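Annotated sample (chain length 330).
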Amino acid sequence: MRYKSIIVTRKGPPDVLQVIENDLRPPSASEARIKILATLVCGPDVTSRYGRTPFAPKVPFVPGYAIIGVVDAIGPDVTKAAVGDRVAAMTVYGGYAEYIFLDQKELIPVPATLDPAEAVTLILNYMVAYQTLHRAAKVKAGYKVLIIGASGGVGTAFLQLGKLANLSMYGIASASKHSVLTEHGATPIDYHTQDFVEVIRRAEPGGLDAVFDGMGGDYLERGFSLLRRGGTLVEYGNPLGFSGLLLLLAKVILFNVLPNGKTVKLYGNSFRFNRRPFLKDWATLFKLLEEGRIKPVIMKKFPILEAAKANQLLESGQVIGNVVLLAKDE
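Output written by the structure step:
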């Protein structure tokens, strides 16, 4: 039996993504074979395809940072999953495929009642927003916050989770995407026509409690300038290369030693080093989704084998919310 996956054949634009066939082997001793139901299309997929990430994989590789699937077969030593279980995984690579083989310790239990397309957005985008809000910035009701990049997959997660936390939110996005910000109670700022620093200083002369930046560049410095004493800026974006990472670390060290009472924190994927908070937070997010308290914004769904088209859409700059790949029978 054969299955298909999508590989990056060389660094470059979406057309470097090609469909290949693979043998569908039995899982090894501690592996589960997962039939993928949904895969998130996200920024890290794009930056790794271009090689613009500090630890870029060697070509060829299969992109795909997060998946939802069903256990199709298990190895003889697997005790934490059974055939038919609905599971998720933060794969980092490998999600653009019909099947994936994962060690049982990588599996995240998922309620079978959830829509795979919605649930897969929780594995990365909502997790980033939730942990940035509640573990890094430790927000409280009434906090005044700025979301830099408020209309994409992580941005719309911030909007929904920030509304649940009773935050006073400002968000930066192009004018064509402002409706999603106002729908979730945020004050929109158009980065094309407005200076967000001037807008915030007029509206909040006492400063902001927190700034969340997924864009990098001079947004870090400008966002930091808007914090009140005791405020926190959390940087969660990709630094675009090893030199970019070193520059970002230097900025963070510098800003944190300045005697102004402000703090910069870096958020990164530490799931493989400390699983417990991630598992706890995913359980919380799954419950919020089950109860209808969050509703992921999904702009478009594509079949898994049309990953190139999905990546083209994501790179177009027109996306509001999430783009998701689905198995052909979903």
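Annotation: The chain has two domains: 2-110+297-326, 123-266.
Annotation: The chain is about 30% helix and 25% strand.
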